[in-house]
Amino acid sequence: MWRRIPTAHDRNMHIAVEPSILYVGTPVVLISSRNADGSNNLAPISSAWWLGWNCMLGLGARGHTAQNLLRERECVLNLPSDAMVHYVDRLAKLTGSDPVPPHKQTMGYRHHKDKFGISGLTAQSAESVQAVRVAECPLQMEAVLEQVHDFGHRPDKAPGALAFEVRIVRMHAAPSLLVPGKSNHIDPDRWRPLMMSFCRFYGLSGELSHSTLASIPEEAYRPAPHMKR
Fold first, then answer.
1. What's the pLDDT tens digit per position in 216-225?
2. What is the third-level CATH fold of 22-221?
3. In terms of pTM, does the model score above 0.70?
4. In terms of Cα–Cα distance, which of 53, 50, 32 is closest to 41?
5. HSE of 167 in the Cβ direction (CA atoms, 13 Å)?
6. Gap between the Cα atoms of 15 and 198, Å rounded
7. Residues 153, 159 contacting (CB under 8 angstroms)
């Protein structure tokens, strides 16, 4: 699709703004973790990014998922496709915390322990961690916790969030996402992730152009052996 390139005049028309949130566009992840009693917890987030086989997750420090990660030191990152938006939205204002924290009460959250049951999703055993996978998600990443950092530093208050660095120790993919004839290469034309932008769900519109980076063989990015606990 043709798009007009901004001119110098357009660039001079920028104004200073202060949006309440800066979710400009990130993938949705369903994090499954184990509760203290051994039951399963499931929570949607969109503060996640990857580098190699490590991933950084941003979570509120007081949330149930954050507390589970600190205690269990493992989780599964389940990536839903854009066709799963209704499953994900059923989890949007639920929390595993009981009682519901005051700040979440004001936003209309309610406690529900059986996240899989209320969402209609299916728990599936993992292979290298105790947390479960989401069977319906086309991509599933079993992960262990490596480091935790305070996040959200500002001069007038203490950080209220945590940044969790997790390492992927096992990944599962639906066979339909793979490039034909290649067992370890996910075809980006077949993978349609669910995205969030300013608290609204979106999918991808398709490839705009062929990136120069695509000329580098994907195997060149593979890190040294990393899957051992």
1. 777 787 777 6
2. Pnp Oxidase; Chain A (2.30.110)
3. yes
4. 32
5. 13
6. 19
7. yes
